[in-house]
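Exercise 7b. Backbone tokens:
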């Protein structure tokens, strides 16, 4: 089957690679090169890099405007497949391929429609994550679903770990759906239940609320790690929290109260403390949390969140 693939981040690459082994991927649509790193070097997206390795023509487009649409239509795809492209597919492009477009979304729809489903699911404390392949329609992530797959992850998994696992599972799921569309056996069913939504995370979403129970604090830490990053303020300075876990066998501390052991910094919540083992103070590199705390002047009396 002639496919056009649209995607941008690393999470979309496993699906592109899998489909390229089974079908004729005639073009890849991805976001333009973006500045990365301290030197802000223009860098192709992970999907663009994979497409070049696979010898597939790349259409770099920030949005699917008239020019991008014409270039895609010229490829005469039978089916469009989209995975985290970062832009909307509108008419006439939406209806142009004979089989339309399908979308791999990293949630069990209708839960967590939107840009950050994995992150929002982790923040909410969902015990099971998943992926869905659905027919793309004009309304956000609302099309009929061809297939879903659940995945159970360790309770400590952060968003990047969860997304990598879902990307691999989702690639196989998408390949199965495309094969079914190709042989005419695919069937999609309407979504049922009330939807929840997953807007893109902001820096403010990474602020940890020490007045919440440790389960909620840790859930937010997992959901915002590595981006936009979990953080708090100590002595008026922002500190990014890179590694943490609920403390075990530790005396309870008041919310925001800080205590240190040889290997960790304990921060109080509404229940048990959170044990922080690695931090990045503002303007500095990552370091061991206990070493950072020992280096604080007037540490006594300092509290997180102030």
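Sequence design result:
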């Amino acid at each position: 089957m002639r496919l056009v693939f649209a995607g941008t981040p690393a999470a979309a690459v496993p699906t592109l690679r899998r489909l390229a082994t089974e079908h004729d991927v005639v073009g890849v649509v991805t976001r333009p090169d973006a500045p990365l790193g301290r030197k802000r070097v223009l860098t192709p997206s992970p999907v663009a890099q994979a497409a070049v390795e696979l010898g597939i023509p790349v259409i770099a487009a920030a949005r699917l405007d008239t020019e991008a649409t014409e270039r895609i239509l010229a490829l005469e795809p039978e089916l469009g497949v989209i995975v985290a492209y970062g832009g909307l597919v509108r008419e006439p492009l939406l209806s142009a391929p004979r089989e339309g477009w399908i979308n791999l979304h990293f949630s069990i729809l209708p839960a967590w429609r939107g840009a950050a489903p994995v992150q929002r699911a982790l923040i909410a404390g969902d015990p099971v994550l998943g992926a869905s392949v659905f027919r793309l329609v004009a309304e956000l992530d609302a099309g009929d679903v061809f297939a879903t797959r659940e995945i159970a992850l360790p309770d400590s998994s952060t968003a990047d770990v969860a997304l990598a696992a879902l990307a691999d599972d989702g690639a196989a799921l998408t390949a199965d759906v495309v094969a079914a569309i190709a042989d005419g056996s695919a069937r999609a069913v309407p979504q049922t239940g009330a939807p929840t939504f997953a807007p893109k995370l902001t820096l403010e979403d990474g602020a940890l609320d020490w007045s919440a129970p440790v389960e909620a604090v840790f859930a937010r830490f997992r959901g915002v790690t590595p981006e936009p990053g979990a953080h708090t303020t100590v002595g008026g300075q922002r500190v990014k929290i890179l590694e943490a876990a609920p403390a075990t066998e530790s005396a309870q501390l008041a919310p925001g109260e800080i205590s240190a052991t040889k290997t960790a910094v304990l921060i109080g919540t509404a229940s048990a403390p959170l044990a922080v083992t690695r931090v990045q103070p503002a303007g500095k590199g990552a370091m061991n949390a206990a070493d950072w705390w020992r280096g604080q002047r007037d540490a006594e009396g300092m509290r997180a969140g102030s």
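Instructor comment: The chain has a mean pLDDT of 94. The first strand starts at residue 2 and ends at 7.
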